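Troubleshooting: if your tokenizer reports a length mismatch, compare against these two reference records.
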Amino acid sequence: MSDVCVFLMHHRKDSGIYNLGSGKARTFNDLVKAVFAALNKPVHIEYIDTPEDIRDTYQYFTEAKMGKLKEIGYGKGFCEPEGGVMNYVSALAKSQ
């Protein structure tokens, strides 16, 4: 992410929001499994229903649209959630 921040300081053409991500939809299951793997723990997921009061407005599908960032010339890729989670958990463990 710091690479993108430095790039934007020098290349952004307008203000606004720039999405950062792989541009591929992934599930919360993928994210949770990556956390268990990074912690070297067996996967144990308990599911609950989405609360009724947010079901109609909850965003079930997310996928970063990378066009705006690519249009201004950013060409580096982004890591998959598994790699990002592993890096984050490793950094947290070192800071303990």
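Reference record two:
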Amino acid sequence: MPATVTCTRCGETRAGFEKPPFPGPAGARVVEEICQECWARWLKQQMQLINHYGLNLMDPQARTFLTKNMSAFLFRTGSGDDIDTSKQGTIEH
């Protein structure tokens, strides 16, 4: 059964994670601070970023871009990139 966590993103006490959903220190922080619902919201946002910008996840620059946006989305650190539909069809980020 997943542990409960008071989520730093939404402020609600909800189901958390037993295992990190992401590797490294960022994954450990997700386990401690993020609920499953906010993680699901991030996965949706991540997919939108991948599709909108045509990201190749084999590219280290693309992974860095997503990690920066994950931190901004989940922990409200720095600034994340919103989906700018006026740039649809371009892959520059």
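Descriptive notes for reference record two:
- Strands lie at 4-6, 13-15.
- The helical segments are 24-33, 36-53, 60-75.
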